[in-house]
Amino acid sequence: MTKISSKSTFFFKKVFPVLWFWFLAFFVIETLLDGAFEKEAMFLVVPLLMVVFGFVLMKKLVWDLADEVYDCGDFLLIRNGGEEERISLSNIMNVSASTNMNPPRVTLRLVNSGKFGTEVVFSPIAKLTINPFAKNPVAEDLIIRVDKARSKRVI
Predict the structure, then answer these.
(1) How far apart are CA 152 and CA 127, in angstroms?
(2) pTM exceeding 0.85
(3) In CATH, what number does 68-152 get?
(4) pLDDT tens digits, residue range 49-106?
(5) Cβ neighbourhood burial of 45 (10 Å; 0-12, 13-18, 19+)
(6) What 3-state DSSP class applies to 44?
């Protein structure tokens, strides 16, 4: 059993949002206490827009990531929010990797919906590289193995 999800998933899902919203709340409170709001109302509009922008961005790109993903040979063990599920490689319809974002994402589309729905998204282990077009080895390996498992699947 090999862990193929990034160790930084906890930071991206839990720590960074707390820091983001705490900083914005601190800025708004300081602005209100200093009386800058009476002089210029724009001091509150921008942080509020940043709260909305941050929430939408984190909801779409971070909070849907699985906590941990383990490669167990012919199945993947997915852990998220205290629950876990075994997903057979033959139950995966498609593997797509988005590497040009932070955190990088691998999306597994399932043939049969499971505990976490029809798609499972996780952040894979990524090597540090200066090549922005480098493919993620975890995603590439999964693509090949899922294709082999899918060819064995009875339709």
Answers:
(1) 31
(2) no
(3) 2.30.29.30
(4) 999 999 999 999 999 999 999 999 899 999 999 999 999 999 999 999 987 788 889 9
(5) exposed
(6) helix
